[in-house]
Request: fold
Amino acid sequence: MSRHRMVPRSVAVILLTGQLGGCTGWRLESLSPAEVVEQQQPGEIRVQQSDGRREVLYQPTVRGDSLLGQRDWNAKRPDRALALTDVREVATRHVSAGRTAGLVLGIGAIVGAIVALASFQGPFDNCCQ
Reply:
């Protein structure tokens, strides 16, 4: 494979890999779990229970005195219920400016290094043509 074809593929792989890390982080909410779910309607929340266990609930809803959610994003209906009194804190995902800046700078540095290496002509470049 020629060097010119490898550069775009390498850049694509790096960009895709960078997206896996994402630019989001969990932020603790000061509102009650019921208020967070009703006001923000998040797609996912991280719940810390009174006993210290943490879990992520997808498509959370509040029904009566219970927090309902799905353990798996693809579930058809809620399969987990927690008493609101057993929930100590709730966190929601938000974009992290620091992670976003780090990702952009990191990808830029890697792409720059790949382009520099691809355009570098070493002592053996002309020997095999």
